[in-house]
Amino acid sequence: MESTGDKTFYTVTMARVYADQGRYEQAARIYRYLLDQTPDRPDLKQALEAVTSMLPDPPGDWHDISGLIERWVRLMVRRNAIRRLQQCRVQNK
Q1: CB 45 within 8 A of CB 35
Q2: 9 with 27: CB under 8 angstroms?
Q3: Is the whole model's pTM more than 0.85, yes or no?
Q4: What is the residue-level pLDDT of the chain in tens, covering all 93 positions?
Q5: How far is CA 31 from CA 35, 36, 39, 64, in A?
Q6: CA angle in degrees (0–180, nearest 5) for 74-77-81
Q7: What would the DSSP string read from start to end of 70-82?
Q8: Which residue from 7, 10, 19 is spatially nearest to 47, judged by alpha carbons?
Q9: Residue burial 53-82, b: 16+ Cβ < 10 Å; e: rest
Q10: Contact indicator for 33, 7 with CB cutoff of 8 Å
Q11: 3-state secondary structure of 62
Q12: SS3 for 52?
């Protein structure tokens, strides 16, 4: 079920079916949509909290990941600089 497509089946029943099948991301998507339509429903908020608690935690916070990416980029730049220096050295011999 696409989040941008037909939302005919975005119902509480369908969200429960997904949750019962262990498809928590799809269930959460439906509950979020339903809460956007009717934000004053505490039962939907509870159901969304229940299915999102079943989702796996992300692999660390963004700060940790961005630090790793930044380090990787610095290492790649150094590697490329070393390769260029090695090529210059070979050409000068």
Answers
A1: yes
A2: no
A3: no
A4: 444 678 889 999 999 999 999 999 999 999 999 999 999 999 999 999 999 999 987 666 666 777 788 889 999 999 999 999 999 888 877
A5: 6, 9, 10, 30
A6: 140
A7: HHHHHHHHHHHHH
A8: 19
A9: eeeeeeeeeeeeeeeeeeeeeeeeeeeeee
A10: yes
A11: helix
A12: helix
The token pair at 85 is 């220096």
- CB neighbours of residue 16 within 10 Å: 15
Residue at 17: amino acid letter: V
Q: Write down the residue that tokens 């029943």 correspond to.
A: 13
Residue type, 32: R
Q: Which amino acid is at 47?
A: A
Which residue type does 7 have? K
